[in-house]
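[Automated response] Your request has been received and processed.

Submitted sequence:
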Amino acid sequence: MRIRRSTTGIVLAVSAALVLAGCTKKNDDASTSAATTPAATTAESADASAPPASESAAGSESSAPASGEKFKVAFVPKLQGIPYFEAMNTGGQAAAEELGNIEWLYQGPVQADAAAQADIVRSFIQQGVDALIVAPNDPDSMAPLLQQAADAGIKVATSDTDAPNSVREVFVNQATAQGIGEGLTDALLDAMGGKGKYAIVSCGETAENLNSWIKVQQEYTASEYPDAEIVDVVYAGEDQAKATQMATDLMNAHPDLTGLVGECTSSAPGVAQAVRDADKIGTVFTVGLGTPQSMKDYLEDGSSSASILWDVEQLGYLTAWAGLQLAQGNAFEATNDVSEKLPAVEYTEADKMLLLGPALAITKENVDDFDY
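Generated structure:
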């Protein structure tokens, strides 16, 4: 599936500040093993429904293999099987097909668990992949594993979620914390009339990106919306049903609550479902970071006002491309012509960060411009 960029979507301005990314759950069970995870998928084994390759070339001529050589680029998401990371996988598969010299490997835990993810990372290290890219559930516990990979001669990076205190060579960042945090706040407070009480249902307590977005929301609400107040922040992990229950509990605990934020792709539909179940559409407003098709029904009936996201498939494409550059020893330029859809990806040396671009506001008017 490929995203058709909306010409009507609202593009949110984003700053150049570093976002410390993560969409994860705290390690609840250190005994979870990689045996509970699905087998890795490769671009070659992807089913026939994968999107066709673009006719445009990506990257520079230097990325062409000298003699049919393929570089093994492994991506370990926080959680396999949810629409968000499957869309990233689709983008990575598209990059592998278009560029021709990537063997794209994709495997993640079936629960957002740091121990299970660590086992998968160790497996890829043992396989001797050329580049290893991780969206860590727990950035601090992932750092030693990234060091282990680097010591084994593997190029290491992070994508979607950062491990800032690690040896990762680049962070493929979806958008800035400032842009996402302000976008969520503006979208919700616009629906709430600029005032009132709201709560945040987040996912993993250790998630670097979620925590950085929440910090922006707290500061931005206090400075720009003096008549608004965040009354609570709770954590549902990557569990939509738990997010719905927590949102319900928040509405019961705060009868004057008029807003809810779902801070990740599982809690965004979760909080909207809670408002629908409570028959409070038009009384309690919600926004969140949800994939378009998972939010479509909620956007259409008004239980969600907007979803703030980015082009997830292109994030996957950029991730695969970045892994290839690392594997080949190519330096990133200040501005990188990655593909026809990503002609000017910025790289900041100080942060060692590739920035996908600005976030998008997905509403009922443009939700059908996205097919995942």
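Summary generated for your ticket: Residues 83-99 form the longest helix (17 residues). The first strand starts at residue 10 and ends at 11.
If you did not submit this request, please reply to this message.
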